[in-house]
Amino acid sequence: MNDSIMNHSDCPEVVVPNPVFFTIGAVSFAENVLVVVAIIWNRKLHLPMYCFICSLAAFHTIASLTKTWENLMIVFANVGHLEKKGSSETTLDDVIDSLLCMSFLGSFFSILAIAVDRYITIFHALRYHNIMTMQRTGAVLGVIWTVCGGLAVLLIWFFHFKLIMIIFVMLFFICLVIICFLYVYMFMLARSHARKIAALRWGSNMRGALTVTILFGTFVVCWAPFFFHLVIIMMCPTNPYCECYRSLFQLHVVLLMSHALFDPAIYAFRIAELRHTLRKMLFCSDWKLCS
Amino acid sequence: MSDFHNRSQTSARRSDYVWQYEYYDDEEPVSFEGLKAHRYSIVIGFWVGLAVFVIFMFFVLTLLTKTGAPHQENPDSVEKRHRPGSCLVDIDGHQDENDKAFSRPLLAGSRSYFNFYINEEDKAGVHQQLTGLIEQSKSDRECTFLSHFNIPNFVNLDHSSTLGEDDLLYEPSAILERQSKSHDKDYPAC
């Protein structure tokens, strides 16, 4: 009697059906792989800005692959083919978590790098070519990948320390604040330039604000629930209200995965050259004619 | 006896709570008795706060467009406008930007920059003017290399509603790309 009362929760965990995870994983994997291949294939896209977008797409590819792999393992574990507490399964689970963590951190840093690159483009345009050389871009990407890999391994190995989780959450908030600042500052400069030009039209004015809101809003809406979940776990593990928030964990993970779905649409597919390359890659069967 | 043992185990577990990544195993039953507010109040509060934040940011940005950015003209910003990277033409008042952008010759000194608004109808006529202007400009080198990268997409502002895909604000025009093809060799590959 007591056991049944204790096991019953007024906020049962919301379960997202596995096909949803698999669909989102498959579609985001396809999108991001196409972006990576298109950028590598087209020599006109071998520029710093596109390298950062390529890196973002690569991290999203890893994230969607890893998440799909994890879902597969969970399906097998639920069916009974895998033992949830086995040592090899736990190690594999740690590897998956490290890869996921690496790809999530990598996507933060790539988005930050894209924002910084755009900032330098606007505010230091004359010196852009000297500041952002391909060698420096390669070095920055190398640092991002190494740091993300290292951090991910550390975070997962030492996850039971609260400090690590706090660092993870702080990292997210710092990235968020920097990205917000960069984009709003760029927007303000763009507006101050546009004001000097005659006949500003209301419809087109809205579009700039909408673009920045979408860029930043998607990042926040996809990531904040998960990080709030981490904060809740640290601060109030036994509070019933917090328990109800934690019961929505799978929905928050779906949001995380959908970030990999939205990012190509926000960053990569808005570049005309990339769209052109994708069209050539996908719809042109005879490459000799199409080149 | 076993109940007491279970309860003491539970309280012991609660005191050294370890967050495990196995979120499917919820070993921490929580009591839901005596809740004053709705169960999902934190969830609702979080999402309402997030929505308010995003909408607030959007309204702040649109207010900036109405009232003008605090980034006002000052001696420092004049220096910024020297940079042809901004590539905006200095136009007075309420004149048609298409005419003025290309009829006014670029100044060799300060405040010389382009506005790359190109209408489909004007493309041919503009081509010669642009070529001439590019050659005249002190900063044509910078202008042509700018065609190699997309200045951020989000600055597809003004006139995009009417010009649509033909609005090449801040994006390399076909004309400039032709000009800059000769510069392709200068840039190292990825």
UniProtKB/TrEMBL annotation, chain A:
Compartments it resides in: Cell membrane
Gene Ontology molecular function: any one: corticotropin receptor activity
Species per Swiss-Prot/TrEMBL record: Amphilophus citrinellus (Midas cichlid)
The keyword Thylakoid is annotated on this UniProt entry: no
This protein's name: Adrenocorticotropic hormone receptor
Record-linked SUPFAM superfamilies: Family A G protein-coupled receptor-like (SSF81321)
Quaternary structure, from the entry: Homodimer. Interacts with corticotropin (ACTH). Interacts with MRAP; this interaction targets MC2R to the plasma membrane. Interacts with MRAP2; competing with MRAP for binding to MC2R and impairing the binding of corticotropin (ACTH).
PANTHER family: G-PROTEIN COUPLED RECEPTOR
Known role: Hormone receptor primarily expressed in adrenal cortex that plays a key role in regulating adrenocortical function. Upon corticotropin (ACTH) binding, facilitates the release of adrenal glucocorticoids, including cortisol and corticosterone. In addition, MC2R is required for fetal and neonatal adrenal gland development. Mechanistically, activates adenylate cyclase (cAMP), the MAPK cascade as well as the cAMP-dependent protein kinase A pathway leading to steroidogenic factor 1/NR5A1-mediated transcriptional activation.
Occurrences of domain G-protein coupled receptors family 1 profile (ranges): 31-267
Residue ranges crossing the lipid bilayer per the database entry: 20-40, 47-66, 95-116, 137-159, 165-188, 209-235, 247-269
GO cellular component: plasma membrane
KW Glycoprotein (keyword) present: yes
Major localization listed first in the record, in broad terms: membrane
Swiss-Prot/TrEMBL keywords: Cell membrane, Disulfide bond, G-protein coupled receptor, Glycoprotein, Lipoprotein, Membrane, Palmitate, Receptor, Transducer, Transmembrane, Transmembrane helix, Ubl conjugation
InterPro entries reported for this sequence: ACTH_rcpt (IPR001168), GPCR_Rhodpsn (IPR000276), GPCR_Rhodpsn_7TM (IPR017452), Melcrt_ACTH_rcpt (IPR001671)
Topology of this chain in the membrane: Multi-pass membrane protein
Family from the record: Belongs to the G-protein coupled receptor 1 family.
UniProtKB/TrEMBL annotation, chain B:
Localization annotation: Cell membrane; Endoplasmic reticulum membrane
Cellular component terms (Gene Ontology): endoplasmic reticulum membrane; plasma membrane
One BP annotation, GO: protein localization to plasma membrane
Source taxon at top rank: Eukaryota
Transmembrane spans: 40-64
Major localisation: membrane
Keywords linked to the UniProt accession: Cell membrane, Endoplasmic reticulum, Membrane, Transmembrane, Transmembrane helix
A GO MF term: type 5 melanocortin receptor binding
Record membrane topology: Single-pass membrane protein
UniProt similarity note: Belongs to the MRAP family.
Protein name stated in the entry: Melanocortin 2 receptor accessory protein 2b
Species of origin: Amphilophus citrinellus (Midas cichlid)
